[in-house]
Amino acid sequence: MNTALIDSNNFYAACEQSLDPKLVGQPLVVLSNNDGCVIARSAEARKLGIRMGKPYFQIHHELTKLGVKIRSSNYALYGDMSRRLMSLLAEHCENLNVYSIDEAFTESRHYSSQELQTWAYQLRATVCRNLGLTISIGVGANKTQAKLANQIAKAEPIHAGIFDLTTTNESDLWLESIPIEDVWGIGRKLAHWCRLKGIKTARQLRDMPSNELHAKCGVKGIRLQRELNGHPSPTFSKTEKQETRISRSFKEPITNLEELKKAISNYVVRASEKLRQQKQKAGKVTVYTSTSLFISNPYNKSATASLALPSNHTGELLSIALQLTEKIFHPHYPLKKAGVLMQELHNENNIQQNLFMHIPLHKQHQKENLMQSIDQLNNRFGAGTIQWAACGSQRSWTLRHNHISRAATTRLKEIPIVKA
Length: 420
What we know:
By secondary structure, this protein is of the alpha+beta class. It has a domain at 244-391: Dna Ligase, domain 1, CATH 3.30.1490. Helices cover 41% and strands 21% of the residues. It has helices at residues 11-19, 43-47, 56-66, 75-92, 113-131, 143-155, 171-176, 188-196, 202-207, 210-228, 257-277, 314-328, 361-381; strands at 2-8, 28-31, 38-41, 69-72, 94-100, 103-108, 135-140, 162-164, 244-254, 280-291, 300-311, 335-347. The strands form three sheets. A five-stranded mixed beta sheet has the order 5-6-1-7-8. The protein has a four-stranded antiparallel beta sheet with strand order 9-12-10-11, covered by helices on one side. The chain has a three-stranded mixed beta sheet with strand order 3-2-4. Helix 11 (257-277) runs antiparallel to helix 12 (314-328). The longest helix is centred in the middle third of the chain and has 21 residues, at 257-277. The radius of gyration is 24 Å and the shape is globular.
């Protein structure tokens, strides 16, 4: 049994190009929240030497001279495209395990080497035709090898976006070509330690003495080394999220408690929706805020409260979060960022009841049905169709996104109109 990693190339930029075909073949960068820095680049922008993480205000003149197209991050679009991609992959893959917004692992149990190649080419063509996205597929004996194979598939045009590390006769050469920093599971500190030891590539990591690696990073290092040697990785299992966080930077600093409450309320509403989508309930809520790090006297503060009974009911979470917001607000600081963190998450089907806080079963069903109805209406008619009063109607604290694209896949009003 082999493992394949399917990864969408330049995902954010590709989503923008899928929505606006005029961007295809053009150098394109996508900016972070508040149009802060570069977080995604098209292949053409990479060739121009535009670096990831570069602050936009430092390079916007250069980008203009080079004819680079600019887009603000459009997370509604990217999230919707990700759901469409994973849904399409699930139709053509065995035991799909979603890893991130643009990556998923799958197991290939019943394919011969030739059948696996055919399946990969057909899947790549299907995704491109249906979604306008280009994917790379790396195949290995386990997840670590599949990650490395995917990197090779992207880096070597001769492979046309598909590479199988289990069938090549030159696996040692390919592992030798991969820097230690690019090995899945090797962080910056561990990579530095490896280089001090003379371990510079994936192959050298595979062949180094196991006792040294175990002494440095324990069982995790040994498991990584075994996978580089081709041993199978653990069977896929669905892991539940441990935390859910929603945070944003403000377009303009906040110095008013009511404005901060509106911002926190909006984040709580979104976090509650995510909890229900994940079929989880939170046992603890944390809210936090901070000023810019670059002022002379920075300020940051957080406050946490535990729930007597875990919940994903928006009203209950709002009530707690708004009380915590009063604890973290400081009128003499221009607050630049805030967020909420849902912690101690439990599967909603396995909630232990509180002996001192019994809620009748019919009351629980009423609350669940209310949340379900609100979610259905917002999903059908657009986010914010049913809104909580605490969120307010005026949002001076929202993100700066001067180059935002349409949300044509999630908002009926933004679907392009074609006049024939």
